Amino acid sequence: MKIGILTAGGDCPGINAAIRGVGKTAITKYGMKLIGISDGFTGMINKEYHDLTEQDLSGILTLGGTILGTSREKPFKMSKGSKEPRKPDLIKEHYVQMGLDCLVCIGGNGTQKTASLLAQEGLNVVGIPKTIDNDVWGTDLTFGFDSAVNIAAEAIDRLHSTANSHKRIMIIELMGHNAGWLALYSGIAGGGDVILIPELPYKEDKIARYLLRRAEENKPYSIVVVAEGVVNPDKEKSVARYLSGKITEMTGLETRETVLGYIQRGGTPSPMDRVLATRYGSAAADMIAARDFSKMVALRNNKIVPVPLSEVAGKLKLVEPDNRMVIQAMNMGTSFGI
Which of 18, 109, 131, 337 has the highest Cβ tally under 10 A? Predict the structure, then answer.
C-alpha cells in the first residue's frame, strides 16, 4: 500500500513525532510506501510531494514544527463564481495519479472537517488530531497541548517574581481560540488568581472587587490568566491590554499585561506529546492496514480508538461550566469573574 501524509493548519509540537509514528509502523511492520505531501492541502492541489524513507524519519522525534510544511488552505472553500478548477476535484485527481491507497491528515478542527469531506468524495482518509487548543471533538487529548501548557505555565511562574517585586497585578494572555483549555490548565498549574475563559462570561466588576479584596488582605500581587477568545469590547487592543486598562481604572492598582503569542506553539515537544503523537501515528498505520478508513484516531480513557470523521467534523470540544477542574479551582479561591 502507498500512504500519503500531510500536515495542515497551525504548527504545534509533536507533528514530526506523529509523522514518524505513521511512517516507521507503515514501513517496518507492513512494508508500505510513504509519500510526504508538501504544505498541507496545498500540496495535494499542486501535486507537490516526495517519497519518505525510514532514513528520512530518523532524528525527527524531538523536532518542533513539521518537516512537511503546512498551510491553512481549505479546499472546499471556493469563492462564488470562480472559474478555476474545483480544488477537491484536483485533490482526487492527484490522489489517483500518485497511486495513493490512503491519505493521512494531521491537523486540528479545520483539517478534520476537510478530511471528512474528502472521505465523502470517495477518498480513503485517516485523521490524526493535533492542536495546542485541545478543542478537537471526540478525543480526550490532542498532542501539542501538553507542550503548550508547559511553556505557558513556565511563563506564569516567571511573572510571579516580577509581580511580587513590584506589587503589581500581572495579566498574561494565552492562545486557545474559542476554547479555554490552555488557559484553564496553565492557570491552575501556574497558580493564577484569576482565570478567564471563553466558556464562562466574566463580569469586570467582580474581577475588580476580587483583586481589591486580595490587596486589602495584604496579598501584595495577583496573577490574571486570560484566554485570547474571551469577550473583548475593544477590538483595537488585545484582551490583555483591554483588561489591564479596565482593572487600573476600576481599582487604582498598578497593572501590566503580557501576550505570550506564538512562543506557545514552537519548539521541542514535551515527552508526553512525543508519546501521544507516536501512539496516534502508529495506530493510524494499523487502521490503514486494516482498511479502516474515514476515521480519526482518538484517545479515550487512555485507549487509542477510531472515531468516525463524520462525527468529529464541525464540532468543538469546549470547557463545560461544571468541569471538575473549574469547580476545584473555585473551591480553592480562584476567581473566574462570574
Answer: 18
